Every structure is written in C-alpha cells, then in structure tokens.
Backbone:
DNA sequence: GTTTGTTGTTAGCCATGTCTAACGTATCGA
DNA sequence: TCGATACGTTAGACATGGCTAACAACAAAC
C-alpha cells in the first residue's frame, strides 16, 4: 500500500505516540493531529485494510512491520530535512520543524539520498533526534527527562522536543541545545520551576519547558564549577 | 482564492501555454497535464468561480490578474527550486525539473525567501528560464527558436526547455547549455536534421531537439570560421 | 450531403479526507 | 444506583479531483 500524504501523517503520529510510551487510540491520535475522532476512525480503517496497523486488545493500535517501515521512512525524511535546512540553508532552529513537516511528503527517494550524502549521513537532527537508517534497525529510545535528574547533578542535554517553536526559541536563547551540560539546581515544590545553570547563568524552567528536555546525568556533581570534557 | 496544489498545476499550465503562444483550451490543457477533458472542464469551472481565469471568445481561456499572480508565484518557486537544487544540492541538470515539480507546491514563502537570498537573487534558472520576481512585472518572452537562425549564423543559446530529461541529458552531453555559442550549419530538407557546431564538434539535431533550443543570433557569420567545414 | 473527427460539456461514479450529530459503552463519583 | 464524562463508532454531508460514457456542435473529407 502506497501511503498518501495524510496516511503518512497518521503513521508518523502512531509511531511517535508508541515510542513516547503513550497509548495509541483513536482519541490520542485525534488530539495529536488536531482532527476529529471520526476522521481517525475512518483513516484507521483504511490503514487496517492496507495492513499497516493492527488492533491489539487493550493497548490500542500497533504498526505492522510494513506500517513501521513506512513510518520510519517519513521520520527519516523529516529529520534529514531538518538537518539539511538548518545546516545548508541556514533556517533557524525553531523553524525547521514546520518546514520539514510539509516538505517530508514530497521528497523523492533520489533527493533524499543526495541530501543524506551531502550532509555526510548524519546520525542526529538539530534537536538531537536520531535519524533512522534507510533500512535496518533503528533505536528511537528517548533518554531520561531532565525532570528525573537529581538536584546537584550535571546533566547533558541530548534531545530537545521540536514541537513548540516559541519554546525552542526561548531555549536556544539561553543556550539550551543538544550537547550542552547543565547543572540541576533546586526544584520548587508543587509543580514549581526547576532551577538550572547553563553557561554560568541561572534560569527557572517551568514544567512546560522541562518536559521538552531529555538527556542523561553526566556526573552526580557536588562542586558547582569546573568544566570537563 | 487560495489555490490547491492541483489548481496551481492548472494555472501554471495555462500560463505556459499562453506564453508559448499556444491556444489555451480544454483540450490543450488536458494534453499538457495528462488528464481527461472532463477533468479540465470541472477545474476550469472552479477557477472561474475563484476569479482566476475568464473565457475570451475564440482564443479560449485567459488568466485574470489574480490568476496570473498565482501562476507566477508557482513558476517562481519552481525555477528557484531548480536553481537551488542544481547549485546547492548538486542535482544534475536533467533531474531538477521533476524534483521541483513536486516540491514547488509545499514551499513556504519564508523558505522561498531564504533560498532566494542564499542564491543571491538569481535572474535565471539552470535552463535559462527567467525567474519571476516576488512581485512586480515579469517578462517571460521566449527568445527566437534555433530553427529560425539562418545557415552560417552564430547563435547564442539562451533557454533550453526543461521538459524532457532524456533530451536534456543528451544536450548537456554535447555541451548545449544556456550561454553557449553554436554555429548553425546546413539544414537537411523535409524535416531533416539541422547541423550545428558546438565546441568544434558537429552534431545533427532532429526537430525534437531543435524545438527545445531558443536564443538569439550573435552574429550573422558569413565566413565559415575555421571551426565549420 | 453524409460521414467522420475534433471539441467541449453533462451525467454519473469513485476515492480521499474532512466535518457534525447521534448513539452506544464504560467507568468513575456522588 | 444514577448520572456525568470519556471513548469509539456509525450515519450523513461536503469539497476536491480524478475517471468513463454519452451527447451536442462544428468542420473537414468524401
């Protein structure tokens, strides 16, 4: 089954919900894509007919091998395009997602190949998301959320969710990008902000922002400064 | 009226037919786009409702000011993309048209601007076609066809029609690109080939090829410069 | 003058993808 | 136990954009 542009969007949404650990149901897909529940019902029926998804009792929908292959193809094109737009065209960090979102459906295999080669077969896009290979296994696992890091730890940002341009612009403004090390400070109680130190400056991040940041504890730092590689 | 992707294709086809001096009718559009006549009838009705085309007795269809504006936007994006793909991505001459054909419908204004600036606001695409400005007047006039050049003249190629990849590949192979000077030789009668000298080598071009080449006589050469035989 | 071909339109069908309205189930609180 | 809330589906509508079949009108050919 050759997926249409709309079907590709659904497959991608299902893939993302699954890898994020969310349940994959009519309503979660509808929320994610901003469409009505009956629209999802209809599309899921088409995807089932095309053997791209199946229903697993309880959990909801699961991609078949073919469905996952198609989803990964779209994800690959999306992330390659993001990388290309950022590195070659000079599109700012916070804009690449939206541009890639529309272009990903009209990128030919041939052009995808060329872009991939031009970029030197990158492994990650500008937000730190792994770029699936053209074929073969792919590991989409997310690193730990920043919120899981203990106070006093030094945390290395690995991925920054690319969905909210305004948030991305703000995070880039204070230097929070993949690869950056931050010191995790105090956490205000009852959903209050988390204090972090980036580049020597302290910032209070609300939950809306901390949820976007994933990475790993680099060292359970006790001492405040001293930069190591 | 915000044109859909399909409507953009029709507007572009109408624009091209008109500027090429062809009649703009249901059947010529259908032939150009490879769709059935009733499909054209239906789309023309929608375009008329959207005030993008009007019927002129006899000649057929004519773009309104708004229709031409939209057609030029698509043509601009197409030619900018061709230039971008060729110069920045390294896509071969004969492939850029097909790639641009699909991407042109999903290029945002913002990205179009960036690409235009990155390229230094080019005036022509790789085939020599003029890139319409974002707004303001645009001159699409085609130069004279090579077939109009007298025997013995030196002819400067300005535009090479980009529609046939195989022909383009062949022409590129023998050095026939925009900006190149050719010496027009003998013309075989009854639709026979036209002999031209490019880069010191003589080639016989069939009408299928000569129709793709447009330019201007650079000098009405009388003496067969040592290159010609 | 009749036939034949070109041209354009209608009529009718289909697939895709969206929507709202309405209707079942379940589940959870009060 | 009853009602509110969430979830999913069906029914029915609409826009878009394609198709074939059939027909009307006209011009050129015989």
Residues:
């Amino acid at each position: 089954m050759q997926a249409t542009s709309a079907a590709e969007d659904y497959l991608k949404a299902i893939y993302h919900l699954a890898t994020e650990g969310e349940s994959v149901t009519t309503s979660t897909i509808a929320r994610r894509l901003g469409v009505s529940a009956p629209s999802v019902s209809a599309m899921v029926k088409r995807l089932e007919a095309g053997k791209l998804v199946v229903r697993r009792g309880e959990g909801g929908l699961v991609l078949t091998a073919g469905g996952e292959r198609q989803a990964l193809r779209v994800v690959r094109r999306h992330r390659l395009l993001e990388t290309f737009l950022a590195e070659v065209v000079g599109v700012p960090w916070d804009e690449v997602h939206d541009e890639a979102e529309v272009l990903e459906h009209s990128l030919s295999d041939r052009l995808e190949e060329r872009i991939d080669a031009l970029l030197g077969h990158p492994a990650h896009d500008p937000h730190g998301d792994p770029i699936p290979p053209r074929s073969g296994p792919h590991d989409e696992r997310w690193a730990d959320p920043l919120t899981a890091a203990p106070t006093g730890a030094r945390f290395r940002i690995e991925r920054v969710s690319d969905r909210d341009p305004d948030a991305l612009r703000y995070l880039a403004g204070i230097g929070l990008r993949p690869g950056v090390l931050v010191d995790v400070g105090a956490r205000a109680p009852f959903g209050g902000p988390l204090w972090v130190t980036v580049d020597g400056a302290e910032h209070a991040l609300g939950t809306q922002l901390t949820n976007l940041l994933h990475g790993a504890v680099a060292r359970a730092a006790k001492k405040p400064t001293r930069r190591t590689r």
Q: What stands out?
A: DSSP finds eight helices and eight strands in chain A. The longest strand of chain A covers residues 154-160.
